[in-house]
Design brief:
Elements lengths: L7 H9 L3 H23 L2 H20 L9 H19 L14 H8 L3 H18 L4 H12 L4 H8 L3 H32 L1
Helix pairs in contact: 1-2, 2-3, 2-4, 2-7, 3-4, 7-9, 8-9
Length: 199
């Protein structure tokens, strides 16, 4: 069976019937999006790893208990869990305890199998550092909407519902975030040009 050809809902059904490969396919589809979203919020790889594992343990528990009711919207549901766990982290303002893997599931078993090679990993980390540097110069509200829109790939309606603001407010924050990001990038490009000319 070609797992890549199946939609999310069918993969969930197969997983609940005992097909572990179905969950691995589901995981591989969204792991980068979810991890990047978490990392850009918490700005710490170790903490992002902890929350990332929490997210998938919560997903698995919900699926196994038959409580999943978001047919056709798995990715948005998974990102919502990730966002809420990030919010919990900031509310506590202290490091979360590392979640112990369940006896029959350790998310990092799958990560190890699907990680990019070393060179790709270095490039990804450099890109994360650059993006993180730019995002940190935005206000928290603007940074939040950029992460949810471009990394979590949520619609403005979903962002508005998740963050408890109107759609117009979410759109306004994105507009100002993009204006500010353009200024930041122009400033950096201008400084880089002056430096190269001086050399």
């Amino acid at each position: 069976m070609q797992m890549q050809m199946l939609d999310d809902q069918r993969l969930i059904e197969l997983y609940l019937q005992g097909n572990e490969r179905a969950f691995e396919e589901l995981f591989s589809r969204y792991k980068d999006r979810i991890y990047t979203t978490i990392f850009l919020f918490v700005k710490d790889h170790e903490m992002a790893d902890d929350i990332f594992q929490d997210v998938f343990i919560k997903i698995i528990r919900t699926l196994r208990e038959g409580k999943y009711q978001h047919e056709g919207k798995f990715s948005q549901w998974a990102v919502r869990i990730a966002y809420n766990l990030c919010v919990d982290y900031f509310r506590r303002s202290k490091r979360r305890n590392i979640v112990n893997p369940t006896e029959d599931f350790d998310i990092f078993d799958i990560i190890e199998d699907t990680d990019p090679n070393g060179e790709e990993q270095i490039i990804k980390e450099q890109e994360h550092k650059q993006v993180k540097k730019w995002l940190e110069k935005l206000s928290p509200e603007q940074r939040e909407v950029v992460i949810l829109r471009h990394y979590a790939e949520m619609s403005f309606k979903e962002i508005a519902m998740l963050t408890g603001v109107s759609i117009n407010t979410a759109l306004g924050r994105m507009r100002y975030a993009l204006i500010n990001l353009r200024k930041i990038m122009k400033g950096e490009a201008s400084r880089a040009l002056k430096t190269s000319v001086a050399e």
